[in-house]
Amino acid sequence: MAGIVAVAGSLALSGCSSKSEPSAGPSESSTAVKADKVDDIAATLPDDIKKSGKLIVGVNIPYAPNEFKDASGKIVGFDVDLMNAIASTLGLTAEYRESDFAKIIPSIQQGTYNVGMSSFTDTKERQASVDFVDYFNAGILWAQRPGSPIDPNNACGKKVAVQATTTEETDELPAKSKKCTDEGKPAIEILKFDGQDAATNAVVLGQADAMSADSPVTAYAIKQSKGKLEAAGEIFDSAPYGWPVQKGSPLAQSLQKALEHLIQSGAYKEIAGNWGVEAGMVTKPVINGGTT
Prior knowledge:
Belongs to the bacterial solute-binding protein 3 family. The protein is α/β, with parallel strands linked by helices. It is 32% helix and 22% strand. The protein has helices at residues 39-42, 47-52, 78-89, 101-110, 124-127, 167-182, 196-204, 215-224, 251-265, 267-274; strands at residues 54-59, 68-69, 75-76, 93-98, 115-116, 130-144, 159-163, 189-193, 210-214, 230-246. The radius of gyration is 19 Å and the shape is elongated.
């Protein structure tokens, strides 16, 4: 998928477990953070975008809490609230166009979209095709029940829930389990679920000792659990999320300046807080900061 972890399907917590204590339902929207136009930043926009009054954004759905649809079909999420604030700062209106993930960067190169917004990991390979304005750091984060601490680096013999086909299921946990058995310790029991909601509920209900997922996904699950979950350890294997734009486009600097303004004003922190993803906030946005 878009980020470090390949996650399929809806990641909203919907209480899929058959037990009687489901986790909290998803926050399908947040209070929009007001952002006013900043004339000197808006003046840096390419003329065609400035004249259109729109920022055409290619997006792939779903990837909660970053971008997904609420019950009415409206596209919502952390990325959406942040992009709306960016557009307002630039005196524009964001117009979201759904796309297959693999088609977003080619569509930016062709000029169909001005920018992409789908939790893209900024990588050296992708930088050959587009420029990235980095706005967030994501990695892997574990969650546990309060009072039942677990060390992600020493989980031998523990049950850990994951969504099937993610990097955690295919790479992270098998490697950690092998280290356990190589040292003569019990293997990690990897509990695989079709959806992240079920994996999360397994921890809430005591069926698993912990869960491992992409850090914004875990942070969102913690926020939605209303105290039934907490972080286990810190985020690891971090890399930046970035907004892709055409290679060499001055739009990159415009987005960067707008994000710097939102960081300084406190709006960026407020938006991240609304979605429970403060742990991935950046303090200074850079262009093409990915190194892997």
